[in-house]
Design a protein that fits this description.
Length: 702
């Protein structure tokens, strides 16, 4: 069958699941003549049918309703010229193999249609970073097991061995592995760029005879390497060690784990690409301003230490990031945005799955978020060994279940999900604080708007039977009011969150204008004590989202509640300590408008009349400085009441303590000649006055 340019091939897997091709085509709105073909064994007996369909697929993708036999189909496509793009969707374990399939698969058909429609979405590609390993391996250990591992890998990698305690074993007959003693102080970096610092570092003595001995103990040393094998036991070198590429720390007492680590490390040579899981926009980060810290949410939840403070912002190391997505889930501004998939990919999937399911006749949909490792394995076991997923549970695979934030929950509910389940791997149970917060906020919003409670469930069990029981209990609960209507997620995280909340409010059973939220919620009001505010506007400069604003034409402070993320930067920056935070969610139209918090007439310069500053600030300064010795008289206080220009003029016009006498003029030869002529003229006049010089007499030269 054809749908929006895609060719869709489905198979009932030798009749193990009921599948009506005509109903499925109708549910998808696909182009099909008569009764669309449903294969019985597409991967084997009917592989020629697959080849013919692939050859006639055209430019559109080829969607295959099977994941188990994907290698067979891909091998067939490799033998074809101009083979179409193949996309695989699991409609068997996630839908068909269910005890709830009903008559001719009618009950599970809406879910099959939703899963196939989801596979048609063109996912935005994700950027990546490159890690290069040249095979330089550092082995750290305490005993002969580290020595043996070094001997095993020396033919494959460039091995260096460091022993924290000295084993009672003879030195090697042939020194193929550089061996040192030392104790680890710190370790940083990633595959291809690890750096380990040691204390009490010493090299192996070549004269060691019956046992290993070292020289130069007490020195410091640093090892730079591409890979690390840590056989010390105890505390790993890095948090979340299983997520640090190139670092292996198997239990020294588990030979099987050691063998697996040796096998994996031997192949870690070359260039490796790693997805850039998180896109970061520093311009809207609310971490800090001018060394004053506001939001630390991402720093608090990151389990690998990939996020570190970086001035007013944070730095996310893509080489260390393990892709859990918790930073993006708790970021209130959307500065950290999960990029796998990029953009609004998750919300597009939610929209497609829920709208297709509902238009195909599905009711009471339950969205199940799960990862592609623990989640897929659990669903597979539930389908093979149990009753499978309930017909109304719609699975949605993610790279990490911990990436789910409040905006994803509200979008799913706004698109019409009755309930939401999040299947969390047991090893991530300790990293669920962000999920718990988001789930709690979603429950607060839904119950506050009159919806039924018990909307979001987090499942962190390991046993597939327990998971199946919890999902079946959840799916069988009484239906809750649907919320689906004209809703579309657009923009970045903050915009999507606001749109989802507004939609839920518009169709709510009991809408309210205001909801109180717990402390730490990303919505709320900034309350300013206007009497104590001096309109210094330090809060405006600190606000990362523009919730607090000034007026270029007059001293004025305004607040837009819809833009506030409750980061606390304004509160921590305010020099007068007159700001408090009030977490709440306002659905009023006025929340999107700028509300004037305080305004004043500007101060007038007492000398020239120029407008400057605010009268409150000037009066406050005069009040605080009036008792100071430097402002004992009124003239000095008046300088505070002057504008910048007049203050400089008045200050420079006063007697200066460093001023001196005028500098003498420079004398020249002309000055000497002029003075001599003046003396001669005076002498001649004196002689004439005494009668010593008659008219016509010549002047006597002396």
């Amino acid at each position: 069958m054809k749908r929006n340019g895609a060719t869709i091939l489905v198979c009932d897997c030798e009749g193990t699941m009921p599948l009506d091709g005509k109903r499925l085509a109708d549910a998808l709105g696909a182009d099909a003549e008569g009764n669309p073909f449903v294969a019985r064994q597409l991967c084997r007996a009917q592989i020629d049918t697959f080849s013919k369909a692939a050859a006639s697929a055209g430019d559109g993708p080829l969607i295959i309703g099977c994941t188990q036999e994907a290698p067979v189909f891909l091998e067939t496509l490799d033998e074809m010229e101009n083979a179409p793009e193949a996309r695989f969707v699991n409609i068997r374990e996630k839908a068909g193999w269910s005890a709830d399939h009903g008559d001719s698969g009618k009950a599970t058909l809406p879910k099959m249609a939703a899963l196939i429609a989801e596979a048609q979405i063109n996912v935005q590609p994700t950027t990546s970073v490159e890690m290069i390993s040249n095979g330089a391996l550092l082995i750290i250990g305490n005993d002969d097991r580290a020595v043996a591992a070094a001997e095993r890998l020396v033919d494959h990698l460039d091995v260096t061995l460091v022993l924290e305690t000295l084993p009672d074993s003879p030195p090697p007959r042939l020194s193929r592995v550089p061996t040192f003693a030392g104790r680890v102080k710190t370790a940083t970096g990633h595959m291809g760029a690890f750096e380990v610092k040691f204390e009490n570092f010493a090299a192996l003595r070549p004269s060691s005879r019956s046992s290993l001995s070292f020289e130069g103990m007490g020195q410091s040393g640093t090892s730079t390497c591409d890979l690390i094998l840590d056989l010390r036991g105890g505390t790993p070198l890095f948090p979340e060690p299983e997520t640090r590429d190139g670092y292996e720390n198997p239990d020294p007492g588990d030979p099987a784990r050691i063998e697996r680590a040796l096998f994996d490390l031997s192949g870690m040579v070359g260039s490796f690409e790693k997805p850039r899981y998180v896109d970061y926009d520093a311009s809207i980060c609310a971490h800090a301003r001018s060394t004053i810290v506001g939001c630390n949410r991402c720093l608090d939840v990151c389990p690998t230490g990939a996020i570190t403070p970086n001035g007013d912002h944070v730095k996310i190391d893509p080489y260390v990031c393990a892709g859990c997505g918790m930073c993006a889930s708790v970021c209130p501004t959307g500065a950290a945005q999960y990029a796998l998939p990029g953009g609004t990919g998750l919300h597009e999937r939610l929209s497609t799955v829920l709208s297709t399911y509902q238009s195909a006749g599905g009711v009471d949909p339950v969205i199940l978020f799960h990862d592609t490792e623990h989640g897929d394995i659990a669903l597979d076991l539930m389908a093979r060994l149990g009753d499978g997923l309930p017909a109304n549970v719609l699975p949605m695979a993610l790279n990490a279940a911990t990436q789910i934030g409040l905006e994803a929950l509200t979008s799913a509910l706004a698109y019409g999900a009755s309930r939401i389940a999040i299947l969390l791997p047991p090893n991530k149970a300790g990293d669920r604080s962000g999920l718990d917060t988001a789930a709690g906020l979603a429950e607060t919003v839904m119950t506050g708007l009159g919806y039924a409670a018990d909307r979001v469930h987090i499942i962190d069990d390991a046993d597939p039977d327990v998971i199946a029981t919890r999902l079946r209990d959840l799916a069988s609960k009484p239906p809750v009011a649907a919320t689906a209507s004209r809703f579309q997620a657009m923009g970045r995280k903050r915009s999507i969150l606001r749109l989802g909340l507004s939609h839920l409010h518009d169709v709510a059973p009991a809408p309210v204008a205001m909801l109180a939220l717990p402390e730490g919620a990303p919505f709320g009001r900034v309350n300013v004590d206007a009497d104590g505010c001096t309109l210094c506007l330090a809060c405006v400069g600190a606000c990362p989202t523009g919730a607090l604003r000034d007026n270029p034409d007059k001293p004025q402070l305004s607040f837009v509640e819809d833009a506030c993320v409750q980061c606390g930067l304004c509160k921590n920056t305010c020099p007068e300590n007159v700001i408090t935070l009030q977490p709440r969610l306002s659905f009023l139209d006025s929340a999107r408008d700028a509300e004037v918090v305080k305004e004043e007439d500007p101060a007038e310069c007492v000398r020239c009349g120029k407008l400057f500053g605010t009268q409150a600030t000037v009066d406050k300064m005069v009040e605080k400085l009036s008792g100071h010795a430097m402002f004992a008289d009124e003239d000095r206080l008046n300088m505070i009441r002057m504008c910048d220009d007049c203050r400089v003029v008045v200050q420079m016009g006063q007697v200066q303590p460093m001023a001196g006498a005028p500098r003498p003029m420079m004398r020249t030869t002309d000055d000497d000649l002029r003075e001599r002529e003046e003396l001669r003229a005076k002498a001649k006049a004196d002689m004439a006055s005494k009668g010593l010089l008659q008219p016509g007499d010549k002047e006597t030269k002396h």
